[in-house]
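Help wanted!
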Amino acid sequence: MEQVIKQTKVNGVDVGQLETTIDAIQQTPEIAKFTFRATNKWISGGHNRSTIKEFYGAGQEDATRTEPFELDADEPPVLLGSDNGANPAEFILHSLASCLTTSLVYHAAARGIKIEGVESKLEGDIDLHGFLGLSKDVRKGYQNINVKFQVKSDADPELLRELCNQSPVFDIVSNPVPVTVSVETV
Amino acid sequence: MEQVIKQTKVNGVDVGQLETTIDAIQQTPEIAKFTFRATNKWISGGHNRSTIKEFYGAGQEDATRTEPFELDADEPPVLLGSDNGANPAEFILHSLASCLTTSLVYHAAARGIKIEGVESKLEGDIDLHGFLGLSKDVRKGYQNINVKFQVKSDADPELLRELCNQSPVFDIVSNPVPVTVSVETV
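Answered by r_m:
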């Protein structure tokens, strides 16, 4: 019953490649450094578009992406937009959901834990007094975010929850990231 | 030369509606409370999909969105994925870019500052020693994010940079947000 059958892929993750990656990083720490990039162009009002393609990682510029990802953001009408895309705060929820899920699935795979399904529901509370500058006591961003996972697996739910703590975006949202913003006018 | 002509729309933002919104919030603070939501479903490996539609705000459930936004996330091959979408950390850059841009454009509109164009380039540095659990001294998320704006406007660049500070996602990334994660197995 408890027999573990070693497979190359667990949860759709190539565990052999994962182990090779870890070995390579331990021999050459520099290859663990990645730089991700995005460019964004304003369209009108709350509507703008990001283009994501190039990144640096594993010691070189990536050359595998032939087409960029294009992502539209906008606001709903109640926030003076036209709903040409999810809004920036909603994209935070997507980013967090996708990163927690991937972290859970990858780290489970590394431990040989089979996952058959993962679904999550996220909610974030925000108070516009912050963004609109109507109160200095109200923060501009989310006051809290709640994530509920339903995972189809025989594994201990508490262990699965701990695997989520490996998520880079969980760290980005939970802890401060230094952000430098510069503006040049033309 | 310095004459300000009052228009309903500045930078594509309906300033009249913005002023009405601010008045309404000052009379009924409760309507400033918004709850954004996302659901996410794992597909395989690093590939998963978020669905974003309903939200609560201005005292009611939104009823204007007839179709959901569907967003795919994945990892590139070097991170064991198949590039079915930008990766979660790249979505953070999109979210930050779009929110900074909208904050700049909206707050400029509220002050009567005309913006003719906004472009931005973002970079975020990350070290996989964190995500892979290979070093406790390396954080899992971005170590820093750099944002460079080029704005077509006659306004003072330093003032425009200050308007970016109003951004909810800038707050979310720069400062800690309490995130609660629960896992139920089925």
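OP: Thanks! One thing I noticed: Chain A touches chain B through 128 residues (CB under 8 Å).
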